[in-house]
Amino acid sequence: MLWSLIQKNKNDIIYLSLLLFGVFIGPYYRKIQAVEAKKWGGTTIGLTLILVVSGYSAVHPILSASLGILAIKASTLKYCHIVTFFFMFGYLFFFRLADKFGFSLSSGHTNLIEMIIVLRVVGVAFEMNGSWLAMAKAKRKTDDVVEPVNKDERDDEFLELINPGTLDLFHYTFSYIGLLTGPYYRYRTFDDYFHLPFSKHVDCFSFTIHTLKMVPFYVALYLALSNVQPLEYLLTEHHRNRSFLLKIIYPWILFTAFRLRIYAGMSLAECVCTSAGLGAYPVQAKNRTGHGPTVGYLKLKQMSDDQARTSQYDFKTVESMDVVGCEAVVTLRDSMKVWNKAVQYWVAMVVYKRFPIKSLKIHAALFVSVIWHGLHAGYFFCIYFCPFYLMAEDIYYKLYYKDATGTKKKIIGFIMWFLRSNSESYQAAAFLLLTFDRIWIYYSSVYFYWYGVWLAFLIVGLILNHIDKANKRKKVAVDTKNVGLDN
């Protein structure tokens, strides 16, 4: 029984073992004093991990990253982000369609590494271009630093020119920290790790243990739930003949198992960062996932070693998952904010904020998110349905939940949580089944019920919202009339 369980989850066990290896070597890596030796050490470990995970397929992440770096350096700062974006996503298409060109397809774990490589190479190109635009706007041609007016106010997006050399781009791209599963972090965070004193003084062990202690719980629950019934059970005749209630409940189990698997992987990935000390900043900087400090960054860079020693730290910069939030938040909108936060930051920074057509920003962000995940129909069904559900959810949130209090708020909150969870499970079924034919088999077995529920949900919400606005207008008119009579 145990052996069959190990065989079934062999690839995941190997992958988790490599993440644990990254956690284990973190304290030793952190102690390396020489900056160049430390960079080369992280890069060597990263390349070794790619080779161990991917074998011959390692050529893809190594080649794509190397060519992407060359594309950055061969382009001007004005256009490097556009050239790099299209090249890296073009290679990602080739990588995933390799069998169409006579090459063998790579494993799922190599795909994860390639996805992280894309985030890093494209992300740093946008950092370079964004900082160049900010410096040009500030018209400080004689100085690479733009001093904020008030250091207690929120920092601008870019405060310095970011233009790393080819070798530094190479080290950033292939550093073992965050390479296997993320989280994504900016080049600025990577550079700060080597030149600022924070990693020397933060209590890395306590942060790592705090996150690591939950991983056995996630893994145990995942193994228990994943062995109840396999994903393929959704496609069987036996499943089609079960009661409608059981058929709509089953994706809840599948999605719960999926979340636990993600929680375990993401938690270990965060531990790789915390054990090495990468992403540690003083709490007064009001750090944000992916971005890092948002207040007083330039002042932090001037902090002395004695000040750094007495500072209080956090690792919010490399925090990917808010597990409690993922399970407890009431709305899908809030759920999206706490799920894989580092990647969402990348999508917002690279796509949403920079897309030139305002009305298409959300569609561009969703489209890039879909193709980054993969080329399967399931990703479109899952990710592209979110805005439609949000249309209805926002109405009910404003009408009934936002201003509610006490028991009423708890009851409405539970109903919205239940509907949100059901919607996510329904969408996750498509995400996991991947192909259109498999999705059709399951969705048709439950009569595409959630699309009907959503449509009714939206129509009723629009009617209620219209009635509420009409009542408010009448109330305003009556109040105005009464004021007139009083006068």
Please characterize this protein's 3D structure.
This protein is mainly alpha-helical and 487 residues long. It has a domain at 12-182. It is built from 24 helices and 2 strands. The chain has helices at residues 2-8, 10-30, 35-54, 59-74, 80-96, 108-138, 166-174, 187-195, 198-201, 204-212, 215-226, 237-240, 244-276, 297-301, 305-309, 323-328, 332-338, 341-352, 361-373, 377-383, 386-401, 406-433, 436-445, 449-486, and strands at 281-282, 313-314. It has a two-stranded antiparallel sheet with strand order 1-2. The model has no long low-confidence stretch (mean pLDDT 89). One of its GO terms (cellular component) is membrane. It comes from Leptosia nina. Its main location: membrane. It is a multi-pass membrane protein. One of its GO terms (molecular function) is lysophospholipid acyltransferase activity.
**Low-pLDDT windows of residues:** none
Q: What pattern of helices and strands is seen along the backbone?
A: HHHHHHHHHHHHHEHHEHHHHHHHHH
Structural class: mainly alpha
The tally of strands reads 2
Principal-axes geometry comes out as globular
The biggest sheet, with number of strands, parallel, antiparallel or mixed sense and barrel status, is: 2 strands, antiparallel
Radius of gyration: 25 Å
Number of helices: 24
Report the β-strand fraction as a percent range.
under 5%
